[in-house]
Amino acid sequence: MPNVRVIAFGYNADVAGRQVSQNTIRDHGRDLILDLRHLRQRDGTSHRPLFFVCHSLGGLVVEDAMVYAERRPETDLARSAFYDNIQAIMFLGTPHRGTDLHRGVAVFRSLSSFVAQTNRSLVGVLDSESEVLSNLLDGFQNIVQSLPVDRRLKITCFAEEFETPRIGLVCFPNRVCFLVYDPLTAG
Known about the structure:
Blueprint: E1 16-17, H1 25-42, E2 50-55, H2 57-70, H3 77-80, E3 86-92, H4 101-111, E4 117-118, H5 120-125, H6 131-146, E5 154-158, H7 173-176
Parallel strand pairs: 2-3, 3-5
Antiparallel strand pairs: 1-4
Helix pairs in contact: 1-2, 2-6
């Protein structure tokens, strides 16, 4: 495709290990907005469309960045250079409704607390009962549903079909996909 630029956003998504960031999803979302804003301002591409391909926790980061940016004043660059230009999102195994993998991390933390650190906020958000995760999904869905037809986002979700050896399904299909509007009737 001509005139396409691919940008990878890296952040510390480790939830357990020897050196673990204590950033929250909101922290990562704001970093995403700031990094994109600076990059797009620097090279004069603030008006170009944005298409996100998000894996796992990265999908939650993009959702939170959207919720944050949508609430900003229209004159704020977080809104104009980021939110107003998003056209499509592809979610790859994003745990919109949580995952049971956080339970394994909790066991790992208790067994190796003298060696490993844990990002408790990220582990907690991944719980299927997480109020933070539920509020994030509600906020994201409200935004998507309230967009005018000419601004409707193209959203696709992919889920795992087969178990990972010794781990199982990391993210169950019914927790990955969500229907924010009926694609058959959407403009």
